[in-house]
Structure formats: structure tokens, C-alpha cells
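Renewal narrative, Specific Aim 1. Our central claim is that a sequence can be written position by position from structural information alone. The example that follows is taken directly from our test logs and has not been curated for this report. It begins with the C-alpha cells describing the chain, in the order in which they were read.
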């Protein structure tokens, strides 16, 4: 696992940066104390580092505090399918807390900072805090809903529609997690990453993204994409972002 322990002091849960995000459910005092005791430390990851490896045993699960990452699976010949992207507030490694081995990998797309929990203590959460246990179920269910939408996009949307959907989806994920703002809407994704997410060749992806740029919906910058018109992307994709209440986090 290409991760390193952050040498800076871990954040006290009372001062956690996630608590400043308006889209996340506030924790009660007892819940906050439990999470503080449950937490074993923090990790810092550089871009390109593998946080969780497919087919490996993972002794930890994580909550993303800062940065972008992505989940993916690979075929024996090395072809990669990106399944989803992770942002602050997301839980990583939940599957490994239930199953013996991970069936996907997670890689840092940008510098990341993560809160670390011990896998062997995971079920104490269900024993001691029903509300937090429900939150974990909510997180898993929400991930399933996102994957349903991704599958619909890959299976039924045209290349132009699915490209517009993915960029709009990432825009709203970044917006609600505090990674971008309406005035600073830069997504740190390459065309190769988009191709691996959409199941398209890099050549087809490049031609399709040029069409979105020609409509002035996006602009490709160094190491990423600038979103110019999120509403326009949604219109092309025939997709409307889900209106959500405060989402839970651990």
C-alpha cells in the first residue's frame, strides 16, 4: 500500500474540516466522542498512490478529509475501468470491513488526507450507535444509487451524453464537498481518466470532449478541465443532479 503516515498532529474530531461543510449531517456529542475513540490516526497520500489494492486484505477503512481519489478494477491484461470518484466525506474501504478481501482498488488523484479507522473495531459501531450504523447503511445505499446512474450512462447514453454527464456529476460532487466553487470549477481529471470511466477509447474520448469544448461548456486546461456551463452539460446529458438533504459521514 503506497501510503504514508501524516507526521502532523491528527485533527481533533471537534475541529474536523468536514464539520464545516454545509452538506454533511452534524454529529451529536456522544457520536463525536465515539468517532474520536474509533479513529486511529490520519494518512496523507500523494497523487498516484494506491490506498487500497484489489484482492488484498485491508486492515483499515477511511473517511476522506481532503482531495480527490477514484475506485477502479482491472482486467488481467491491464485494462482499467474506473467505477467512481471519491471526495471529502466519502468512506473508503467499507467493502473490506465486511468481506475478507477488496475486489477493487482506490488511488489518489490529488494529494489526499484521510481519517483512519481499524477494521477489527468496525462492528462496535453497530453495537453502540444505531444512528451511526444507519449512516453507514445510507452511505452504502447512496454509492449503489451512484453506480446505477453510471451504469445507465455507460449502457444507454451516447458518447457525447455520457461525457457531459460525467463532467456534470464530478462538478456537483466537487461543489458539495468543498473541493471546487462556482468561481473555481477546475476538475483534476485527464482525458485518459475520462476514457477509463466511460469505457471509450482515448481517441473517441478526445473527439467527444472537443465537441463539448466547441459548445463552450468546458475548457481543457493543464492537468484538468474547467467547467464553464454546468447547466449546459446537464442538458446535453439529460440528467438532473439529485437534490439531497444533509448526507451523513463517519
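The sequence written for that structure reads:
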Amino acid at each position: 500500500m503506497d501510503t504514508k503516515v501524516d507526521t502532523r498532529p491528527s485533527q481533533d474530531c471537534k475541529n474536523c474540516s468536514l464539520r464545516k461543510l454545509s452538506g454533511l449531517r452534524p454529529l451529536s456529542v456522544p457520536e463525536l466522542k465515539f468517532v474520536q475513540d474509533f479513529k486511529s490516526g490520519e494518512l496523507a497520500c500523494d497523487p498516484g498512490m494506491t490506498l487500497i489494492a484489489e484482492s488484498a486484505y485491508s486492515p483499515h477503512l477511511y473517511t476522506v478529509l481532503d482531495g480527490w481519489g477514484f475506485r477502479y478494477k482491472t482486467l488481467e491484461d491491464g485494462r482499467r475501468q474506473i467505477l467512481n470518484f471519491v471526495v471529502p466525506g466519502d468512506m473508503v474501504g467499507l467493502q473490506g470491513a465486511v468481506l475478507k478481501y477488496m475486489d477493487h482498488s482506490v488511488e489518489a488523484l490529488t494529494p489526499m488526507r484521510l481519517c483512519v479507522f481499524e477494521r477489527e473495531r468496525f462492528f462496535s459501531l453497530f453495537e453502540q450507535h444505531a444512528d451511526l450504523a444507519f449512516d453507514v447503511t445510507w452511505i452504502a445505499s447512496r454509492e449503489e444509487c451512484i453506480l446505477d446512474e453510471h451504469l445507465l450512462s455507460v449502457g444507454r447514453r451516447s458518447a457525447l451524453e455520457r461525457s457531459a454527464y460525467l463532467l456534470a456529476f464530478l462538478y456537483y460532487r466537487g461543489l458539495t464537498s468543498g473541493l471546487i466553487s462556482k468561481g473555481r470549477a477546475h476538475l483534476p481529471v485527464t482525458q485518459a481518466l475520462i476514457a477509463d470511466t466511460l469505457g471509450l477509447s482515448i481517441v473517441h474520448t478526445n473527439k467527444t470532449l472537443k465537441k463539448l469544448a466547441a459548445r463552450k461548456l468546458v475548457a481543457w486546461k493543464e492537468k484538468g478541465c474547467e467547467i464553464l456551463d454546468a447547466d449546459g452539460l446537464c442538458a446535453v446529458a439529460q440528467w438532473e443532479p439529485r437534490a439531497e438533504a444533509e448526507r451523513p459521514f463517519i
